[in-house]
Structures are given as C-alpha cells and as structure tokens.
C-alpha cells in the first residue's frame, strides 16, 4: 500500500512540474530589452569627406531605437566629442539606455541614425548633416531579439551606417556601434504550500538572472503537503 501511495505522489509531482513548466512558458512570452548606443563616429565609407577646416573632425552622432511595428522611438543617445579622426569612434556622452518591457520575444529591434560634423564660428555651418533621424543605409537593423543574444547577456556589438549625409558642400558617412540584452518579464509563482510567494527575481528562489524564466525553482517548501 505504501508503495502505491509513493508512486501516486511521484505521478502527482510529475504532473505538477509539467503544469508549472507550461505556466512558466505562457507567462514568458514577453521580454524586457535594454539597448545601448556604445560608440559612434565618421567612417570612410561610400565617400565620406572625413575632414574639418580646423584640425580633426568633430563628429556628433546619434541613435534611437524601437521594437517592431508597435513600439515608439526611444529618446536620443549619442556621442558629442571633438577632434575624432575618421574610422575612430567615441563612446556615448549623451542619453541613457533604452529600456522597455512587454515586448513580444519574437520581435525585432530597429535603429535610426542622425549625425553631422560640428563646425564652430571658425568654420561656419555644420558639414555633412543628415538633417534628422533616418534608417541605416547599411549594417545591422531589424535584429531579432532572441537571435542575437542569449538571455541576460549583452549581445556582441552591432554596427549600423548612415551614409551620404550632405550639407555645406561636404558629404559624410556615420557609423554607430550598439548592443542590447533581454530578459523575460518577471513573474511570481504563488503556492499555498510554500508559505508565500516564490519570486522569479529573488536569487534564493531562482537560479537564473533577475527577470528571467527559471528552469529550476530552488526555493524550499512542501509541494503536496503532508
């Protein structure tokens, strides 16, 4: 009789694990993404002038991001650093990370770029201005969220290019390096036998990064009761 009872407990436990796994999967269909403008500058692409009337060029390069067709464009991130030669790239000096939740995990990340070579009163008007944000002419765009980075980890650097920006008799090409990370949106699992809530974002309850969908719950508690 005891053997039958133990077998029954194991069957019930297995069913519960399957149900919890399914519940976890259903709850993890959206993600939170973080996107960073890593660096930017002029590059010697299709015909960039790569010059300045006074010393090295002063490329001011900006990017913004959104997800898929339903997201709205983020605030501006960029680098405003003087005296940076062509094919050299300055780190971000303005704006903060683009962080957004409830993003479908099958969606894509899109980027737009703006840039110009800043001229002060000595050189006159700015050179090679893109005149506002626009879609990259080459490089990375529409990156599938779950294809470019593993959960919790930042992706490798992507590069995206805005080319043939023209003003004040100069044409320039601009490049942005950027990266992103994603996690499943946080969720909590309540069990009447656990004595409270097992939160997926608490290190003692889950063995993966905050906001992720754990494969193993390591919190303690009686599953079937006594």
Question: How would you describe this structure to a colleague?
Answer:
Helix content is 13%, strand content 36%. It folds into two domains: 31-183, Immunoglobulin-like (Sandwich), CATH 2.60.40; 184-214, no CATH class. The strands form three sheets. Strands 1, 4, 5, 7, 9 and 10 form a six-stranded antiparallel β-sheet that branches. It has a four-stranded antiparallel β-sheet with strand order 3-2-6-8. It has helices at 2-27, 145-148; strands spanning 30-42, 59-67, 77-80, 90-91, 98-104, 108-117, 138-139, 143-144, 158-167, 170-184, 188-191, 196-199. The longest helix has 26 residues, at 2-27. Residues 18-28, 188-196, 200-208 and 211-226 have low confidence and may be disordered. By secondary structure, the protein is mainly β.
Outline the secondary-structure elements.
Layout: H1 2-27, E1 30-42, E2 59-67, E3 77-80, E4 90-91, E5 98-104, E6 108-117, E7 138-139, E8 143-144, H2 145-148, E9 158-167, E10 170-184, E11 188-191, E12 196-199
Antiparallel strand pairs: 1-4, 1-5, 1-10, 2-3, 2-6, 6-8, 7-9, 9-10, 11-12
């Amino acid at each position: 009789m005891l053997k039958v009872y133990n077998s029954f407990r194991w069957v019930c436990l297995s069913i519960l694990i399957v149900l919890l796994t399914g519940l976890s999967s259903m709850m993890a269909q959206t993600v939170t993404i973080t996107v960073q403008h890593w660096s930017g500058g002029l590059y010697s692409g299709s015909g960039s002038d790569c010059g300045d009337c006074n010393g090295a060029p002063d490329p001011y390069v900006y990017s913004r991001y959104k997800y898929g067709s339903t997201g709205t464009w983020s605030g501006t991130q960029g680098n405003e650093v003087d005296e940076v030669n062509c094919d050299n790239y300055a780190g971000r000096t303005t704006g903060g990370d683009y962080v957004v939740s409830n993003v479908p995990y099958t969606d894509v990340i899109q980027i737009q770029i703006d840039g110009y070579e800043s001229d002060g009163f000595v050189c006159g008007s700015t050179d090679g201005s893109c005149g506002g944000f626009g879609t990259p002419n080459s490089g990375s765009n529409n990156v599938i969220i779950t294809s470019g980075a593993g959960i919790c980890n930042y992706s490798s650097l992507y590069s995206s290019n805005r080319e043939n920006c023209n003003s004040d008799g100069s044409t320039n090409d601009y490049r942005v390096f950027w990266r992103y990370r994603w996690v499943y949106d946080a969720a909590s699992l309540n069990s009447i036998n656990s004595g409270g809530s097992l939160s997926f974002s608490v290190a003692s309850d889950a063995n993966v990064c905050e906001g992720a969908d754990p494969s193993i719950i390591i919190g303690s508690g009686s599953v079937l009761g006594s």
